[in-house]
Design a protein that fits this description.
phosphorelay sensor kinase activity, transmembrane helix, histidine phosphotransfer kinase activity, Rossmann fold, five-stranded parallel sheet, membrane, 3 domains
Length: 538
């Protein structure tokens, strides 16, 4: 008898000299048979001794004969015992090994002996092995089919996600262009209006524009995050500067609703991307103000024993019920507009907190939420600590901030409405303006300036396959300056979300604003760009 795929003779020989089998034979079969033989021959010798007188010649001869027969008998008993035991033990050993191999997932087939009982055992083992093999093959086939179906579904989900992201990116880009122009025109109109009734109408227009701006900003952030166009530029960030931005963005809104916005001063630094962190805090504070009727919002910092810096945003709003707390950071999920401020109920898409979650993941920032209905909500952000920079301390020593009035600014955009809106707004701010729709027109526009402009603002994607980066480099070469680090300040404005375009901006190291840009953000970016350019060349 042998296991399939092995030669029977070789297998039998291997088993015959198996140390385990030899030990079993010696202990359980041969040794008992030898003891029985010794007992029988001992009885024979005792009977012989009784019949013959001790010491007689016949007695001695009989003892020798009995001893010889005893040795021969032992040898015969041992040999026959070995043969009988081997024939009995080997099949059992093979059955044992076959069962062990089946347990390890192998398929075996035993040769069937003629013995009825042993043959039935061998046939049973073979049938069990075949049944297990069929079951295993069927399971592997089902697993393979399930894996293919799962991969197909994952591919379809990924394609749907990418399709949605592309749709959001394209739609937000095309729709933000006129919105950006509307923002610029309404701001310029308000700056030049003195009639109270007309000014009220302009303010209503600006409120509508701000609402649209909020919606498109949510779509833009989501589409950029989903297309992988956003990468964290980690740096040491002074929280007090970020807090100042948040306070400036929302203080007037809080006061107009009779709420208090308290932003605690802090000397803490964190390791983060400043733009992303500012966006996170803006979304959280905006959400807190939206659902708070009385009291206010508090923003502060706590230093953890672990060394992390924790930012807390408290509000005294309506709170979030426990069943909603795990879902508020999902896309398009909104608890209810019932308790929102009347001017905010139709302003959100449920993307703000989803954007917060995605940005926090990029910053490796842990978010915690605790809320009690009718009492308020606490949202906490845990960030790694940062190291104060000497440059920040030097900036603190600067006196008055730069003013945009009197700046010579070149504006480049292939959308005439945006170009005219920027021209009107910057003129109200006291800037000297040159405007152009493409690279050639830009070089012609600055031909009258003997010195390079203080600032060039350009759209990223222009017609005829040109980009704003090309325009900025062309202007630098026109004034014989380094295209990579010219003496004038640079700003790119875009509605793009494609990763290749965003990568182009990142490689150029040029500050960028994403449309639609509020006048306040535009002014701040202009000041920062001019300050950085002057500081670099002093």
């Amino acid at each position: 008898m042998a296991v399939a795929n092995q030669h029977p003779a070789a297998e039998s020989t291997r088993r015959a000299y198996n140390p385990s089998v030899l030990r079993q034979l010696a202990l359980r079969v041969i040794l008992p048979m030898a003891l029985v033989a010794l007992l029988l021959f001992g009885l024979l010798a005792w009977e012989t001794a009784r019949l013959l007188p001790p010491g007689s010649a016949g007695f001695v001869a009989a003892m020798w004969r009995i001893g010889g027969l005893l040795l021969v008998g032992l040898a015969l008993v041992t040999a026959s015992g070995w043969l009988v035991a081997a024939r009995a033990v080997h099949p059992i050993a093979e059955l044992t090994e076959a069962i062990e191999r089946i347990g390890h997932g192998e398929q075996v087939r035993l040769q069937i002996d003629r013995g009825e009982i042993l043959g039935r055992l061998q046939r049973g083992v073979n049938e069990a092995s075949q049944a297990l093999a069929r079951s295993r093959n069927r399971m592997e086939s089902e697993l393979g089919r399930t894996a293919v179906e799962l991969a197909d579904k994952n591919a379809k989900l990924e394609a749907a996600s990418q399709s949605r992201a592309r749709f959001l990116a394209a739609a937000s880009h095309d729709l933000r262009q006129p919105l950006y122009a509307l923002t610029l025109f309404s701001s310029a109109l308000r700056a030049g209006e003195t009639d109270p009734s007309k000014l009220t109408r302009v303010l209503h227009i600006e409120e509508c524009v701000a609402s649209l701006d909020h919606l498109f900003s949510e779509l833009l952030d989501l589409s950029r995050l989903e297309t992988g166009a956003v990468h964290a530029a980690m740096a040491d960030v002074r929280l007090d500067e970020v807090f100042d931005d948040v306070s400036r963005n929302f203080r007037m809104l809080a006061e107009s609703r009779g709420l208090r916005l308290i932003v605690r001063k802090t000397d803490a630094w964190v390791r983060a991307d400043r733009t992303m962190l500012t966006r996170i805090l803006n979304n959280l504070v905006s959400n807190a103000l939206r659902y708070t009727d009385e009291g206010g919002v508090l923003v502060g910092v706590r230093h953890q024993q672990s060394g992390q810096v924790r930012i807390d945003i408290w509000d005294t709003g309506h709170g979030i019920a426990p069943e909603h707390q795990q879902r508020v950071f999902e896309e398009f999920y909104q608890v209810s507009h019932e308790h929102a401020h009347p001017g905010e109920r139709q302003r959100g898409l449920g993307l703000g907190l989803a954007t917060v979650r995605k940005l926090a993941e990029l910053l490796d920032c842990r978010i915690a939420l605790a809320s009690t209905p009718h009492r308020g909500t606490l949202v906490s952000l845990a960030l790694a600590p940062g190291t104060p920079s000497p440059q920040a301390q030097a900036m603190d020593a600067m006196d008055a901030p730069l003013d945009v009035s009197g700046l010579r600014v070149l504006v480049v955009d292939d959308e005439v409405s945006i170009l005219e809106g920027l021209r009107a707004l910057l003129a109200e701010w006291g800037c000297e303006i040159r405007a152009a729709e493409n690279e050639a027109a830009a070089l012609a526009a600055v031909a009258g300036w003997t010195q390079a402009p203080d600032l060039v603002i350009s759209d990223l994607r222009l017609r005829e396959g040109r980009s704003g980066v090309d325009v900025l480099r062309a202007v630098a070469r026109h004034y014989q300056q380094d295209p990579q680090r010219p003496g004038f300040a640079r700003l790119l404005v875009t509605g793009e979300t494609r990763s290749d375009r965003i990568g182009e901006i990142a490689a150029s190291r040029i500050p960028v604003l994403f449309k639609p840009v509020s006048p306040q953000k535009l002014r701040e970016a202009m000041l920062a760009a001019v300050f950085a350019a002057r500081a670099h060349h002093e």
